[in-house]
Amino acid sequence: MKTHLVTGGAGFIGSHLCDKLLADGHAVIAIDDFSLGTYENLIEAIKHEHFKFLEGDVANSSFWHQLAKDCPTNSIDVIWHMAANSDISAGVKDSTVDLHRTFLTTFHTLEAAKALGVKHFALASTSAVYGDLQSVLSEDSAPLNPISNYGAMKLASEAAATAKTSTDLDKLWIFRFPNVVGPRSTHGVIHDFVRKLNSTPRRLEVLGDGTQCKPYLHVIELLDAMMHTVRNSNEKINRFLIGPLGDKGTTVRYIADLVIRLYGTNAEIVYGNGNRGWVGDVPTFTYSTDKIYSLGWKPKLTSNQTIDKAVGEIVAELKSPVVALR
Amino acid sequence: MKTHLVTGGAGFIGSHLCDKLLADGHAVIAIDDFSLGTYENLIEAIKHEHFKFLEGDVANSSFWHQLAKDCPTNSIDVIWHMAANSDISAGVKDSTVDLHRTFLTTFHTLEAAKALGVKHFALASTSAVYGDLQSVLSEDSAPLNPISNYGAMKLASEAAATAKTSTDLDKLWIFRFPNVVGPRSTHGVIHDFVRKLNSTPRRLEVLGDGTQCKPYLHVIELLDAMMHTVRNSNEKINRFLIGPLGDKGTTVRYIADLVIRLYGTNAEIVYGNGNRGWVGDVPTFTYSTDKIYSLGWKPKLTSNQTIDKAVGEIVAELKSPVVALR
């Protein structure tokens, strides 16, 4: 049994990570400020005797000072930094959102790792660091010209973390996530569509022309990949893309059709113009997952199969009971 | 005549840039907080009628709010963001130095560009973004794993800037500098050696074994390259490495021998162990400057010729008159 600290532990991916670590027999300290996370996401975790939850803002150094007082040095084995703004569009409108929630959370969590004597650090990063790079994306693709503040502050986070490997960290894992879907998500295209149908069940407005095509990965597969990587990679800096099976992404049209079907409505779909949903959106990208495959991890679901599973889950989770009765 | 705003305008490179822009017939607004810059560096610039100096911290948003009140929208054509911590070693010891002086200066200057309606932005970046990447470095080299907080916060700055090209900026120039030397410098190996001889004229202690080998560029050539690039490049994001003539760097041994000779002492050189001067130091790197060559700019001096020139200048500038009388 090891002790894992999870920032953003009440959030979408963070809360699934807590559940997984507890199920694997570890002790977990989760931190969240409830800006996006919810208490409901931890409803299973809090039943566990080896689970501890702290409410706080990890971008605030005084939060960490207090924790360092309460927490013996070297008592935490791994920090999983999952706290971030996940609403890319919000960060494009106001740069300070990603500065604080995405970058400064990382900066101060890295400082905390040093203060707490934690040598192993896992960082949630993103395909958005590549911006509009038109090639099959791999770990070494360049140039890195993010087009959203979200992508920029994730790249900034990666940079701050790699610098710490020359002073404080023995091992760093950087995971560049594709679009991750599943229960407890707070943003994303499926989420948006279900919410829109909740308010207008006969009409679904889609941002862009629906040809946007990206790889989607289920959160359960993501966790499996991260666990496998942490167990099996041995470099000082371990950077991995994680993606679904095969090299095909899923179009927004596919998702729109499926959401309507599983929602049980005959809504008209109204498409917008162009393939860019909003400023900072990267309309199409393709992932090479050769590196993680060569480490012995392979996903079970293609991007479309992932969407098939996640749409069912998210409709079940979010579909308004009021609408359902109509 | 255009109006250029230069952050870090009283600093090493910033003050030379002000002189150059004024000499080329432009108006210049320089900003500096005198953390590293000096009034003496502006002694020529302040004589000029089209030069304006403002003392302030560009990482402080209230400084910019005041400036925006005093400054008509669209009255500034280009922002040159030169303000940064330039003492890499200081930033390794205390991460907040580079957070504030290198990254947050960039973040808030970018926000100011938006508020002031400035569409052209030039950013001083660095070879330190590559970390210890063992290949000939080009604009598209990857992965980017900086090993110092300085390099990390410069990469973070690049990222914050590229994101702004999807919303506020029409043109962005990112210059990755090698080691830049010349009058008015505040840090670096020549500087260190002269200062050491000022206190112990018979003994020069060198960090590392002296085999460290890096490309050095003279500040006057750097300015020439930046001006050429801004005039001649037409992408939205223009990233350029700037380096000296040829692909050979200069060893620390070469610099130590030359400093002693031009200082006029017969100091004993005492070398340390290993080729890494200090944590965060990148001992050797080689630059590809093919991209800027293909844009029609070529330096006049090799790295060794640059050092020959700069050592004379820096010894003349820094050699203690007290020592000289001994």
Number of strands of chain A: 15
**Main sheet: strand order of chain A:** 3-2-1-4-5-7-12
User: Which two chains share the most extensive interface?
Assistant: A-B, 37 and 37 residues
Please work out how many helical segments of chain A DSSP would assign: 11
Percent strand of chain A equals 15-25%
List keywords for this structure.
alpha/beta; globular; 326 residues; seven-stranded parallel sheet; homodimer; 11 helices; two-stranded parallel ribbon
Describe the protein in words.
- The structure is a homodimer of 326-residue chains.
- By secondary structure, chain A is of the alpha/beta class.
- Chain A has helices at 12-23, 61-70, 88-93, 95-116, 149-164, 189-199, 219-232, 252-263, 290-294, 303-318, 321-325, and strands at 3-7, 27-32, 51-55, 78-81, 120-126, 136-137, 171-177, 179-181, 203-206, 213-214, 216-218, 237-241, 250-251, 268-271, 286-287.
- In chain A, strand 1 (3-7), helix 1 (12-23) and strand 2 (27-32) form a beta-alpha-beta unit.
- The longest helix of chain A has 22 residues, at 95-116.
- The mean pLDDT of chain A is 94.
- The A-B interface holds A 92, 95, 99, 103, 107, 110-111, 129, 131, 139-149, 151-153, 155-156, 158-160, 162-163, 165-167, 237, 239, 279-280 and B 92, 95, 99, 103, 107, 110-111, 129, 131, 139-149, 151-153, 155-156, 158-160, 162-163, 165-167, 237, 239, 279-280.
